[in-house]
């Protein structure tokens, strides 16, 4: 079976017309790969268009304010990708004099770039024979070859990387890499793959054994933790509110949010009122508290579920340290907060 040739033939006939496939500019390819990490094409495409419009060169991105970069990224999640993107742009401009690294090893030195992204850029932009291994590749190869090694282990990565490197077309590494990713995304899908029209359906081990739904094998992740978030949305008589920037290295680093009260279990009105009374900014103030969402909003992250309530606090005083409600949409916020702001319509 000449998998490489068949894959490329399939790709030639079936590939989608995507903007990053019409260029070998490493800056654009890098942008697309970072955006598409843990993001589907249909969701990532508008962000790619926005970033290449606002920041058409790596110099533009490097010179941007981080807050503006995070605001443009808002809604994609996994915000460390945006922070790493910005940091790497500065590194390319300030340390590498604006020259994008042109080898796999040097691309791998960029913050937020792993083996997959470095392989994609090196092959697409510089024709290096470095095979990509992402979720699409794991799925396609595990099914075609009947591989049961868990993909989220060091052993699994080495096995699949070696196989992909063995299969890659040395004369067309960029085309092969894009072909196998496209194949996994469009034909060998996680659920309901189109086996009837698959070019490998006569040799696919998983299809013959009836194990399509069991592959690829992935070890169970750690148990998801459950948290209770209570956001305090203050509305003062001078049309201001309080919004704070998150510090530290936890979720939503450097993004903005309303003051947060985290509780061990779902909070009652009485508990929140008592907590609010202890806030320095509301000392001696008269206020009313009401719950915005009667039903808890569950915001699911990869490692934790946030059971969220928004509490509206109406004040009879001005907020000297507050932010004008008219400016609140200028701040980069997590999608959870952004959705609230849109629905509440200050």
Give keywords.
Endonuclease III, domain 1; Nucleoside Triphosphate Pyrophosphohydrolase; 2 domains; two-stranded antiparallel sheet
- What is the CATH C level class of the largest domain, in words? Mainly Alpha
Shape: elongated
Largest sheet: 5 strands, mixed
Please count the helical segments.
Answer: 14
CATH architecture of the largest domain: Orthogonal Bundle
Question: How many distinct folded domains?
Answer: 2
CATH 4th-level superfamily of the largest domain: Hypothetical protein, domain 2
- The SSE string, one letter per element, is HHHHHHHHHHHHEEEEEHEEEEH
- Estimate the helix proportion, in percent: 40-55%
**Could you say which structural class the secondary elements and strand pairing correspond to?**
alpha+beta
Residue ranges: pLDDT <50 for 5 or more in a row?
none
Measured distance between first and last alpha carbons: 62 Å
- Give the strand tally: 9
Radius of gyration: 24 Å
Beta fraction: 5-15%
Task: Write down the overall mean pLDDT.
Answer: 94
What name does CATH use for the topology of the largest domain? Endonuclease III, domain 1
């Amino acid at each position: 079976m000449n998998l490489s040739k068949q894959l490329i033939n399939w790709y030639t006939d079936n590939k989608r017309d995507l903007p990053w496939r019409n260029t070998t500019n490493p800056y654009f390819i890098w942008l697309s790969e970072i955006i598409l990490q843990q993001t589907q094409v249909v969701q990532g495409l508008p962000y790619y268009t926005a970033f290449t419009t606002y920041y058409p060169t790596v110099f533009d991105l490097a010179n941007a304010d981080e807050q503006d970069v995070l605001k443009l990224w808002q809604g994609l999640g996994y915000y460390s990708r945006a922070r790493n993107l910005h940091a790497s742009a500065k590194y390319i401009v300030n340390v590498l004099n604006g020259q994008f690294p042109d080898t796999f090893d040097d691309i791998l030195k960029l913050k937020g770039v792993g083996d997959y992204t470095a392989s994609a850029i090196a092959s697409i932009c510089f024709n290096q024979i470095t095979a990509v291994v992402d979720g699409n590749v794991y799925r396609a190869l595990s099914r075609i070859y009947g591989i049961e090694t868990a993909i989220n282990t060091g052993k699994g990565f080495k096995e699949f990387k070696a196989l992909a490197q063995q299969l890659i077309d040395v004369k067309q590494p960029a085309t092969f890499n894009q072909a196998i990713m496209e194949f996994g995304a469009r034909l060998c899908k996680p659920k309901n793959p189109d086996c009837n029209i698959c070019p490998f359906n006569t040799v696919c081990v998983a299809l013959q054994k009836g194990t399509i739904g069991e592959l690829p094998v992935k070890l169970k992740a750690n148990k998801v933790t459950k948290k209770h978030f209570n956001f305090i949305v203050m509305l003062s008589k001078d049309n201001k509110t309080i919004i704070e920037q998150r510090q530290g290295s936890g979720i939503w680093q450097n993004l903005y949010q309303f003051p947060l009260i985290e509780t061990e279990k779902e909070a009652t009105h009485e508990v929140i009122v008592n907590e609010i009374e202890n806030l320095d900014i509301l000392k001696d103030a008269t206020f009313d508290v009401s719950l915005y969402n009667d039903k808890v909003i569950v915001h699911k992250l990869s490692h934790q579920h946030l059971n969220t309530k928004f509490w509206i606090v109406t004040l009879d005083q001005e907020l000297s340290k507050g932010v004008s409600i008219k400016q609140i949409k200028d701040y980069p916020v997590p999608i959870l907060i952004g959705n609230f702001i849109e629905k509440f319509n200050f």
